[in-house]
Amino acid sequence: MFRIGFGNDVHRLEAGVKLILGGVEIESNFGAVGHSDADALAHAVTDALLGALALGDIGAYFSDKDHQWRHADSFLFLRYAVGLIKEKGYAVVNLDSVVNLEQPKLRPHIDKMRENLAVALEVEINCVSVKAKTGEKVDAVGESRAVKTEAVVLLEKKI
Ligand code: MG
């Protein structure tokens, strides 16, 4: 039995804030604003995992009203979602994802993001794809006002 899940996310960008994507802190003039560490890629992947098994969304487990998740490492949310799908007897087959960000260029960081995600998802790195797109100077991404992410995961029932 296979299940597919989709997740996306958007965070506003501001000067003087950290930019963390896929567990990698990226040197940038603008960072993502959020309650947690605002790792929009980790959030999209977490939602994709939850969505694959119709387990709700990240906000149902880690409310942005809950003070304990202030500045939290978003990989904690991701690992929690992996634990839930494992409890249900599923394992990740592969992940495909997109980060939409005008600047800086993400290429130098992509393999580290893939490695971090592969460890969290308990898969080989060749099962994890992270792609980077710019916004061609239009919309909130193109104007460097936001980072947007999308993720699709495939799960397989193992037991
Ligand atoms: Mg988010």
Structure description:
The structure is a single chain. With 159 residues, this protein is an alpha+beta fold. It has one domain (2-157): 60s Ribosomal Protein L30, Chain: A (2-Layer Sandwich). Helix content is 31%, strand content 33%. The protein is built from five helices and seven strands, in the order ββββαααβαβαβ. The protein has helices at residues 40-52, 58-61, 74-87, 107-121, 139-142, and strands spanning 2-15, 19-21, 24-26, 30-32, 90-100, 128-133, 146-157. It has a five-stranded mixed sheet. β2 (19-21) and β3 form a beta hairpin. α1 (40-52) runs parallel beside α3. The longest helix is centred in the last third of the chain and has 15 residues, at 107-121. The mean pLDDT is 96. The structure holds magnesium ion (MG). Magnesium ion binds at residues 9, 11, 34, 40, 43. Magnesium ion is lined by residues 9, 11, 34, 40, 43.
Specify Rg, calculated over alpha carbons: 15 Å
Distance between the termini: 10 Å
The level-1 CATH class:
Alpha Beta
Q: And the CATH topology?
A: 60s Ribosomal Protein L30, Chain: A
Distinctive features:
alpha+beta; two-stranded antiparallel ribbon; 7 strands; 31% helix; binds magnesium ion
Brief synopsis:
Helix content is 31%, strand content 33%. The protein has a five-stranded mixed β-sheet with strand order 4-1-7-5-6. It has a two-stranded antiparallel ribbon with strand order 2-3.
